[in-house]
Amino acid sequence: MASDLNQLVLRIVVPELGSDGTVEVRPIVDGVDVVATGLPREPAESPRTLLGSDGPLVATAEPREVRLAEAECTEGCCGALYVTIRRAGEHVVWSGWRDPGDPETGLSEFRFDAKQYAAEVERASSDRSWEWRAYTVARLLQQELERQDEWFERWDCRLGGVHSYPLSRAWFTFYSPHPRQVGRDDPWLQFRMVRRVSPADPETEAAEILARLLTRDPREIAEVCGGTPEWAEQLGYRWTRW
User: Fold this and answer.
1) Domain that holds residue 158
2) DSSP string of the chain?
3) Do 152 and 122 fall within a single domain?
4) What pLDDT digit, counting tens, does each position of 4-54 carry?
């Protein structure tokens, strides 16, 4: 019976202005925040991770394990919350709850109407009303950088990501040397660039930032933000603490 089915709402939670928190997708089932139940006091995964037309929340006949949340100090330290999602005829089933750090998640199986479920995933994926300007620029810039394989290979780099906290700046991070080019114990560094976002149209701003980036070696205009002082010295870069 339809009355026996659960109801899903995907709530986007935006951190306070000036904080270093991240945007979260909080799955609410029948009014209950499942992350707060299964992994209390820890952040849920981001819209970039969970949402989209081909994102992990899209239900298929093939069961898929999806991580809904990870402890702020990393999964290996304090756990994470996983669920297996599958399409079963006219229903979508969430089951097989798992936390590597705790055998008891306190969550049981949920069963949703497939049409309601798909509509909610589509609604949450297409809603951009919560984005602030710098976040939109960061999202668009990351989409473009993910297509620049040849550029990263030319400079022996690997994309980390493009992020924005609730401010007017975007962070672009990358790693070098590319892990395919070095051994497990060889030195590597993480680099970052911070760009203040102008009041221009986000698509125009992202395109202009990308055009400037692609004209040169990104390591020449970025600062080291990860790795070790010893590795920075070996690779010929100045070690920066931030």
Assistant:
1) 133-235
2) -GGGSB-EEEEEEPPPTT-----EEEEEETTEEHHHHHSTT-PBPPHHHH-STTSTTS--SS-EEEEEEE-TT-HHHH-EEEEEEEEETTEEEEEEEEBTTBS------EEEEHHHHHHHHHHHHH--TT--HHHHHHHHHHHHHTT-HHHHHHTT-EEEEEE--SSSEEEEEEEES-GGGS-TTS--EEEEEEEEPPSS-HHHHHHHHHHHHTTS-GGGSSEEEES-HHHHHHHT------
3) no
4) 899 999 999 998 876 777 899 999 999 999 999 999 999 999 999 999 999
- The backbone region for 78, taken as left when phi is positive above 0, alpha when psi lies in -120 to 50, beta otherwise, is alpha
Is residue 47 located within the same domain as residue 162? no
- Provide the whole-model pTM: 0.79
Residue 116, in any domain of the structure: yes
The closest of 41, 129, 50 to 83, measured between CA atoms, is 50
- Beta-carbon contacts of 51 under 8 Å, excluding residues fewer than 6 positions away, are 10, 25, 57, 121, 124, 125
Residue that is last in its domain, among 77, 104, 126? 126
